[in-house]
Design goal:
This protein has 13 helices and 30 strands. The chain is α/β, with parallel strands linked by helices and about 600 residues long. About 55% of the residues are buried.
């Protein structure tokens, strides 16, 4: 595999170690955006007393070396395959240069922020401070405003530009919240109340599945745990509860998994799991509200299908507190960052991690500042070097907004030009994660909302260069010219069913659609593969994409029908081989099992 560096985060090798004065030092713009993303409007200046929790990212000056480790330990054809790094080793590779720590500490101290008021990440590459708006404005030579979102009514405190002393620019990658307007919402998880009996009926008819086996005909109307095991050929596989394998699921933005709903779901779809529990982990004050009214569709879906498919594998559910909306009636509200930074900071500080983690949250890539997206993506790479398979939903709006009508589409650039363009999703566009699209029906076809396309931020990684180039060469000349970045990281990588998942929500049966169904589904089968490798005294799979693009695709069910409209177009088409609607397709567990057990 050709090794390439995807994240050239700036760093100057010759760093000044002498004390540098800051008072009176010329400020220079560090980061700015043209204006708030579509839907946000500026209102009043932010109150000077309003508290901000600022996270300062310091350059990870050995990241290129860490990335090299990632390619080697993730490539089944490399001698170092599976030689994952420890927390201590990744901390050493992502730690800032000592001179960076010195100069940033001096800058903070010049504003009265001493060591005892700072919170540092495990690798010291993030520093968190709590300061009032008035002080933040002085430090960053900016003005904060209250911005309001037209659709939701939420208000946040942000700015569109901030500056730092010139001699700090090479020592700070970014500071947020400043220019970050991304909402990182759960993908749509469309809920339909189901007129289902309390006990599932077994269909008398069957359909032939992609593996040649017979599948209950009812699976063409409602997806259950049994349907997925039949469809993806894992009926005969049983996981272990004691071999150390774990599945992790994440929840943000006040999404709570209701345990009564979970047990009712187990009774309905996997009675053997009834009474089993999972490990709840609160990150940054994440709550575990168990009232029915607080149950989250997304959190219920993830836990019910993820934990139901993999039982009795050990399970972990991370609840990460999101950003509280600004409330002008409160005296001491605090604006914090979107939750990925807090979740990453927490998990990267842990010595042991689940081998497989699925997340179903994201936003338009362009709403995330490039510097921030790069740092979050780098965090995913660190997890990969530690042997974790990270999967993300690819998004639920096709190539942008899900609207094929040119007259009503809402896909516009946020650079002041307001031109129509496809809108890739982040973090699905990060080259260090496995993005999961959605299918429907048996035989499977790509579903219209399956998110897919090409990143505007991240260049195409070597592992997918050949297949993506082959796909692009099949397109008619000029297809969607100017609407997408032909050199960008392409996604999704794989797919799974994403329509009519039968869940229990607030004590009632309901069905759910979305790639939010697909990611925990595919992740569950990855977790089963890790279970089998651990039982065979092998390492877990870790970052999946080098395996998927080199040989794993041969054990997937190719999806060749469907498209993902949006931005006034019909979107891309599914076709033979990889495509930006379904990736390489859906899992055939028995084939994958044979492949992964034959690998070192």
């Amino acid at each position: 595999m050709r090794l390439i560096s995807l994240l050239g985060l700036p760093f100057v090798a010759a760093l000044a170690s002498a004390a540098v004065p800051f008072k009176g030092c010329q400020h220079k713009v560090k980061e700015s955006i043209y204006g708030p993303p579509r839907g946000w409007s500026r209102h009043t200046p932010a109150p000077k007393y309003h508290m901000l929790e600022l996270k300062i990212a310091l350059p990870q000056h050995k990241f290129a070396e860490l990335e090299q480790h990632l390619w080697e330990v993730s490539d089944p054809n490399h001698l170092r395959y599976g030689a994952f790094l420890s927390k201590e080793e990744t901390d050493a590779l992502t730690a800032p240069h000592p001179d960076t720590l010195d100069i940033v500490n001096e800058w903070l101290a010049s504003y009265g922020l001493t060591e005892e008021s700072l919170v540092r990440s495990s690798a010291n590459d993030w520093v968190t401070i709590r300061v009032p708006v008035g002080l933040a404005e002085e430090m960053l030579d900016t003005t904060y405003y209250v911005y309001k979102h037209a659709e939701t009514g939420d208000s946040i405190v942000r700015t569109t530009s901030y500056s730092l002393p010139e001699n700090l620019h090479n020592h700070v990658d970014l500071i947020q919240p400043t220019t970050m307007f991304a909402r990182f919402k759960a993908f749509k998880s469309t809920l339909h109340w189901a007129n289902q009996p309390s006990v599932l009926s077994t269909s008398s008819g069957t359909i032939t599945g992609p593996a040649g086996n017979q599948i209950d005909a009812s699976c063409n109307n409602t997806i259950t745990i049994s349907c997925l095991k039949q469809l993806y050929n894992s009926v005969s596989y049983n996981t272990s509860a004691t071999n150390g394998n774990q599945l992790g699921l994440t929840a943000y933005l006040g999404q709570y998994a209701n345990n009564m709903d979970l047990q009712q779901f187990f009774q309905l779809e996997n009675p053997s799991a009834y009474g089993s529990n999972y490990t709840f982990v609160s990150v940054n004050g994440g709550l575990n509200n168990q009232t029915y009214s607080a149950a989250g569709v997304e959190a219920n879906l993830d836990t019910q299908f993820g934990f139901g498919l993999t039982w009795p594998t050990a399970r972990t559910f991370y609840s990460t507190a999101g950003e509280p909306p600004f409330d002008p009636d409160l005296l001491t509200p605090t604006d914090t960052n979107e939750p990925y930074s807090y979740w990453l900071e927490y998990v990267l500080s842990q010595p042991l991690l689940p081998q497989t983690i699925s997340t179903s949250y994201g936003d338009d890539e362009q709403t995330v500042p490039f510097t921030y997206a790069s740092r979050v993506c780098a965090g995913m790479a660190i997890l990969g070097t530690r042997g974790v398979s990270i999967l993300f939903s690819s998004g639920d709006y096709g190539v942008g907004d899900g609207d094929a009508d040119p007259a009503t589409q809402q896909c516009y650039s946020n650079d002041g030009l307001n031109v129509t363009k496809f809108l890739p999703a982040f973090p699905a566009s990060c080259p260090y994660v496995t993005a999961v699209g959605a299918t429907v029906n048996i035989p499977e076809t790509a579903v219209f909302f399956s998110g897919g396309g090409f990143s505007d931020y991240f260049v195409r990684p070597a592992y997918q260069e050949a297949v993506v180039t082959e796909y692009l060469e099949k397109l008619a000349p000029g297809t969607y010219k100017g609407l997408y970045n032909t050199y960008g990281r392409a996604y999704p990588d794989v797919s799974a069913q994403g329509v009519n998942f039968l869940i229990v929500y607030q004590g009632q049966n309901a069905t759910v659609d979305g790639t939010s169904c697909s990611s925990p589904t595919f992740a569950s089968f990855v977790s089963m593969l890790n279970d089998a490798r651990i039982n065979a005294y092998k390492t877990p799979l870790g970052f999946l994409n080098p395996f998927l693009y080199s040989s794993g695709y041969t054990a997937l069910n190719d999806i060749t029908v469907g498209n993902n409209p949006g931005c006034g177009t019909e979107g891309f088409n599914a076709t033979t081989g990889w495509d930006p609607v379904s990736g390489f397709g859906t899992p055939n567990f028995e084939k994958l099992l044979t492949l992964v057990l034959d690998m070192p």
